[in-house]
Amino acid sequence: MITIALAAGFLLCGYEFIRAASNSIYIEIYGGDKIAYAMVAGTVFTAIFLYCYGWLITWIGTRRTLLFTSLFSSTMMFCCYLALQRGIRPAAMATYALREAYIVIVIEQYWSLINSTLKEGHAKKLNGPITGVGSLGAIAGGLMVKRLAEPMGTGTMLIFAAVSLLPAAICSELSYDPKNEPAPSERERGKKSLALRLFLKSSYLRRIGLLIVLTQVISTVLDLRFFALVGRYITDMDARTAYIGSFYAMLNTSAFVLQFVVAPILLTYVSLRFIHPAIPVIHVATAVMLIIKPSLLTGGLAYLLFKAFDYSVFRAGKEIFYIPLSFDSRYRAKEVIDSFGYRASKGGAAGLASLAVFTLGSVPGVAYALTAMFSALGWMAVVRKLVRQHDSILKQSPEGAQILED
Could you tell me the residue range of the domain that residue 263 belongs to? Predict the structure, then answer.
């Protein structure tokens, strides 16, 4: 768990480099109003990565698949850097789409390993700190980008991102026990698909998928609303950049406290049936505040609280849902839900928002807050049923859990 947490730290440190660089390069070449197209491209890249992942995990196993996807992503980043240096404009789109795809494919493999290794009691204590080490990497990456981007150039940040995947790959390799690598059962052995059939049979997996869709709709609309308010209230570019930097510093600090202190205590001493429904209640409250009094303060608060809880208590608690499930669910179906579902929901929500603006000319700000509020209400309904199903699975024998999952 120490080495996989360090892997997450290196991975997320590098992600800050490519996230900042890809955004800046894309805006420079195509303009900020066309970001939605890049989000859609990210969904396509994620689907391609997932398809290849489904074959790789069958051919070479979980450990080698993680190593391959990490090194392949590093190589692709370096290729994007070279293409941009040669003035190949579509490389800006490719860099953005690659950044959207690789991070979810690799990080979810980390969590598949964690969920295959920890018992639920240990997971409740350790999942928060594991995400916390990842946040330390992200904070370090953000600070380095702030210091290095201007003197070294935006393009060079892609090299830092590519290099960061090398220590991440080493740490993830050390996390595997060579004698006890997670492997499919005899019934699951030899499959080359992403176990999509499980979604037809398992309402449990479908509910986890719906949960991800609802959370990412909230994330997207709060993101769009907050940055619209930032643009309205802070018109000076340098002042706006400083504000955004301080905002993300506050967000990461809040997430850090929640990851190392709040999440372990809550998950250890409070039942999941209380924790999970309480999170969307907080988001309903902040959405209502944003509806009643739209301002930079309420918009920032709604977005900050969503992201802080999403990175900490929600992530740590959500991963527990996968622990009692089969190999196919932990390594195949999980990637579909938490990688493709995550990106497709984000891209779809952003695309619909862009379409509404294109069709209507503008969208009232209250529409974003209302969407967040109703999505959070849907989240409450879904997660209550999901917790009940999780509790039922734990009451079964291992064989009974598999039958209930199917």
Answer: 2-405
